[in-house]
Each structure stands twice: as C-alpha cells, then as structure tokens.
Amino acid sequence: MTEPDHQQLSESTVEPGKRTGGALQPWDVGDLPSPPVMNWKKLPTLIGPGILMAGVAIGAGEWLFGPAVSAQYGGTLLWLATLSILGQVFFNIEVMRYALYCGEPIVVGYFRTTPGPRFWLPIYLVLEICNIWPFMAANAAVPFAAAVFGHLPTDLDYTLLGITMTESEWVKVLGYVIFLVAFLPLIFGGTIYRVIEKMMTFKVVVVLLVVAVIAVFQVSWDNMIEVITGFGRFGQVPDRAESVIAGRHFSVTLPDDGRTVMLRGTIGNNTPDFIEQLVDGSKVDPKETTLDERTRTALEVLEALVRREARQGRFLVDDLNGDRRLLVRGIIRDPLKKSRSESSWVAESYRLIADDGSSQTFVPGDKMPGDVREWADELVALQGMRRVGLVAYIGQHGRLPDLNWAIIVAFAAIAGAGGLSNTLASNYARDKGWGMGHHVGAIPSAIGGHEVELSHVGMVFEVDDTSRRHWKGWVRHIVRDQAGVWLGCCLLGMALPCMMSLEFIRNVPVEGNRAAAMTAVGLSDHLPDYRGLVWTFMLMVSFLVLAPNAVFTGEQISRRWTDVIWTISSRARRLEGGQVRLIYYGILSLYGVWGLFALAFFDPLQIAIIGAVLQNVALGCAAMHTLYVNRTLLPREMRPNRLMQVGLVFCSVFFITISVVVLMTRVF
C-alpha cells in the first residue's frame, strides 16, 4: 500500500506560500540551495556531521566496551559492531534526508506524524531515559585520577591540596568537576554546533593518530588479522575455556554438584586480588557469615589453584568438551623479545582426561588424535577460547553461550553512536546549513551568538527540474558524509583499540573502574623501560576520548528537546528566533542538577551498561518511525529507495533483537 502524499492533502486550506506538514503547523516554502561540489582543496568546508558524530562514536563503545569484550573474547564478536554501525549508517542518512527536505530535525518529524504530539510526547520522554546517565564524566575521571595517583584508584587514603579522602572518593569528586566543566564549551561561540564540531574534529584526529601509531609498531600481525577478520565473522561466538590462567590474570571455574563456582582476578604483589567471586553467575562475598561451607571449600580450592599456577610468563587452559577435558600448559613469550610474526603462547604439554578419570599426556612433538590436536591448537592460538557457530551452539545446547551478554549488548549498542544520539545527525545537518537548513538557522550559544536565530518552522521547496537536480547532489553529499567519513572513522576507531586490547590486556578481567584505564596498564607493562611516560600518556589519551563525550551527553538532550519545544509549543512560538537559547540552557541546567545526583548514587560502569542496553530499544523504535516519516511526509521523488527502507528495517530489527537477548539471559 502506498502512503498518501501529504503535500497533496488539504492544500486548499493552507495559506499561500505554505505547505501542509502533518500534525503540526504548515511549512514555509523556499528554494533548495545548490549542493556543495566535491573538491579536495576545499575539503575542510565539506566536513559536517559525519566527523562530529565520529567524535561521539569514539567513546564508550570503542574505549570501554570494545576493549573489554575483545580482552575476554578476542576479535570473535566484532561482527556485532559491523552490523551495529551499518544499521546506524542507514539511520543517519535517513534522518539527514528529512533535514535536507524541510530544515527540521527528525524528532520534530516524529511529532508531525499522526496521531500528533500529545501521543508521541510521553513515548519519546520514556525513550530518552537511556540518555540521561552521565557515565562519560564518571568514567573520564578514572584515567585522570589514575594519572595523579600513579595507579588505578583504590580505597586507600590520598591527600590532595590539604584534603584527605579515599582515592575512590577523589574519583567521584573529579567526576563532578569534569561533568560541570563539560558545560563550558556549550556557552561560547557563534553556534553550539561549530564549537562541538571543532572539538570533536580535534579529538578524532589526535586519538586515531595515536592509536594507529601504537598499533602499527607494537601490535602483532596475528592480533591485527584477528581483529580485521572479526568484523566479518558473522554468526560466530566464543566458547571460552572453563579455566584460563594467563600470567597474572585468571578466570577459573569449578563445577560443584550442579553449581558453578568462579574466581576472576589479577595477581598483585604475589597476592590474589580477587575482582569477582561468583556462584552460578551471581557475585558472593566470602566474608559473609551466611556463606555455606561447600561454597567456601570450592572457593578455597580455586584460590589454591591460582596460587599454584598463576606465574608471570606462564599459562594454563582447562577446557571441557563433552565428556573429555583438556589441560594445556605453556609459556607466554616476552613481548619485548618475540618478533611480531611469532605467536604469544607456546604450548609445552597437553593432558587429555576422559570421564572415567583415565588420562593421556602429550608434548608438542608427540602424535595426537586429529580432533584433539585441532582442539588444542585453537585453544592456544586464541589464548583460551574456541570459535563456534551461534546457531549450531543453540541447536546443540538449547541456549545461548554462557557469556557476559550485558557488556556484549552494551558494546553492540554503543558501537558507533547509539540510541537517540543518532537523531542528532539531522540536527547538525540543519545547523550546518545543509539543504533547506540553509534557510532555517541554528541554536545560538549564550555568548557570541546574538546574531544567530532559529526559525520556529521548517521550510520545504517546490519539486521541479532544478530542485530535483539539487536534491540528488545533496543526497550524494550526505551519503559521502556518513558512508565515507562516519563509517570509516567508526570502524577504524573500533579496530585500533581492540588491536591494542588483544595485544596488551587479553584475558585481563574487567570490572568497575578498570575499564577506563585497563589499556594504559597493559601498555605500560608491555614497555617497562618507559612505564611512567607510557602510563601517563595513555591515561591522558583515555581522558581525551571520554571527556568530550561528557559535553555531548548534555548537549544532545538539550538540543533534541529544545527543537521539539520550539516547534510544537504555542508559548515557545511567541519567542523571537534568538531566544531559543533560553529553552536550550534551561534544559541543560535541569540536566546538570540531575547529573550531579546520578554521579553521587550510581556506579559509573553499571549505569553505562544499563544506559547502553536501553539505547537499543530507543534506536530500534526510532528507526521504524523514521521510515514512516520519510514515506509519508516527503514528496514521492524525495523518499528513500527500497535499499534504504530495507536498511532502516534491518536497523530496527537488529537493535530490538539484541535487547531481547538481555531479557533472555536475565542479566539484570
């Protein structure tokens, strides 16, 4: 069924020079400007939302969740990032299509569709919940504090400026400071968009250059290939060995009469620093008096195993496959002495144990059964895991693999931008003056933006030969911006940190405030002669990745709802164009109050995971709504073709599906 063309409905009821625009006031009518011509000499003038949104994309997904997932599961799950980013490319192009046509952000388009603003307002207020968590400021505080302390924050006391608090409390204070300082860039400049664009462009160039240099000179070929091929290993998932001890890091499991007891952690100063102790996936506190004797005994057995086996330069893998167990022991090559083409792990012995207790021991030169050799080689090559097909695994076991699906789904959600933050591509296209945004204006900054105004209503154009030609040029321009600049930066921004993760922190447990600084720890261990310099430098890079996104968090909420209120509110429409800043900064102030409260009472990594999972639902819903908007409010000749429509449906299905995965695994 073909949707009605709103431009042909009730035009007789609209005053001359106007065009009907769904459930809101009619659009003005003007001329579509000529699109920019691709010219490498004028490349800076062509930089648009793609580079800004790339700066947003290189954040939690690429620096927190990407390395965390690859540290535990190698490059196997990077295909989820491929699907996530591709889905967002379709979404970004389509929301920008709407902005090109009428100069309005896509969220205003949502409110133009039937049954109207009163219906859509509560729905999008609920979906906005995924974006209100200021976890970027909290996580940015960790590398900054670690640089000051010289180590990851602990609960020890630290005195600074004559004030003594625990290091964890100092991290909270720094989180408050970063959160409040993040508002300053939004105050100065002609338009808020220009300030954000300059900041994000600087961030993208510096961060990608730094991590590219590290990857080129320090990462092994095996890890590079594993990451690159991981983006295309669709449908494969990791099957991690029951127990892996890799140097100082360990994740050991003990089946115990129908239960599973696990310890995960890192050895520090010859003492196990247990990060997590779990029974059937739930954390337990060994100090609790209610802990039963059987659990205590199991934990003691695992602790004894760790104390006996966890040594620098050695590894142990204990894997169960059906009724057989395979134990592989060996050495971890010194990264400073091995060539980049040599594998990090070298097996020294293999022990195959049958279910009746009988065993066989092999050394590398011995002849082994073919299936056992393949099994062992994969465990060594992938450092404690194997790859299996997701569909085949579910068919065999009747369930999803036992993985940390919460952090995996969060990784898929934030690969790229994620959630309603992708709708800002249309806002920024408008503020950049692309398409009909040239006639509409932009949101002015509080200081330096007094001559900038924003129209209360969008402006469309008459469809004729000239506008059709210009339109095709504009569509090509946004495709270059998103499928070229944004897509390329996102994939590169994900690949390079994951290469570093595989090289420096593979099998390192990730928990709490470790996520933001774990790469710095690994790289400084990798280059001990330059430990102090590398430690501080990488922590500052981490800060540069995360802190600018703290600016964007408040900006996106304020911008999205400023545009909605500015268009749908009769009271707001009585304000002059430059007074839109009153609404913008009013919303920003409310977010500032809420953000301080959230930072005080919520764990930064946990709220990052929860927020990311909720973003999947928001983006999945917004993708289908965008399809409806562009198929009903745009003239037929400007609507998306079949490929773009299929892309939006794929985007919606993908993000809704991975949200369902979280519910199925009951991770919360």
Give the secondary structure arrangement, pairings included.
Elements: E1 18-21, E2 24-30, H1 43-46, H2 49-57, H3 60-73, H4 78-102, H5 106-112, H6 117-127, H7 135-149, E3 157-160, E4 163-166, H8 167-181, H9 192-218, H10 221-230, E5 236-240, E6 243-246, E7 249-256, E8 259-268, E9 271-279, E10 282-283, H11 293-309, E11 314-321, E12 324-332, E13 345-353, E14 359-362, H12 370-381, E15 385-389, H13 390-397, H14 405-414, H15 424-432, H16 437-440, E16 459-461, H17 465-504, H18 518-526, H19 531-568, H20 580-601, H21 604-632, H22 642-665
Parallel strand pairs: 2-16
Antiparallel strand pairs: 1-2, 3-4, 5-15, 6-7, 6-11, 7-8, 8-9, 9-10, 11-12, 12-13, 13-14
Helix pairs in contact: 2-9, 2-17, 3-14, 3-17, 4-14, 4-15, 4-17, 4-21, 4-22, 7-8, 7-19, 7-21, 8-20, 9-17, 9-19, 10-17, 14-21, 14-22, 17-18, 18-19, 19-20, 21-22
What does this structure look like?
With 668 residues, this protein is of the alpha+beta class. 54% of the residues lie in helices and 14% in strands. It is built from 22 helices and 16 strands. The chain has a 9-stranded antiparallel sheet with strand order 10-9-8-7-6-11-12-13-14, sandwiched between helices. The two termini are 41 Å apart. Mean pLDDT is 83; it is low at 1-10.
What characteristic shape results from the CA principal axes?
Answer: elongated
Which structural category fits the helices and strands?
alpha+beta
State the major sheet: 9 strands, antiparallel
Helical stretch count?
A: 22
Q: Taking Cα atoms only, what radius of gyration do you get, to the nearest Å?
A: 27 Å
Tally of DSSP β-strands: 16
Helix content: 40-55%
Neighbour order of strands in the largest sheet: 10-9-8-7-6-11-12-13-14
Strand content: 5-15%
pLDDT averaged residue by residue? 83
Rounded to the nearest angstrom, the distance between the terminal CA atoms is 41 Å
Poorly predicted runs of 5 or more residues: 1-10
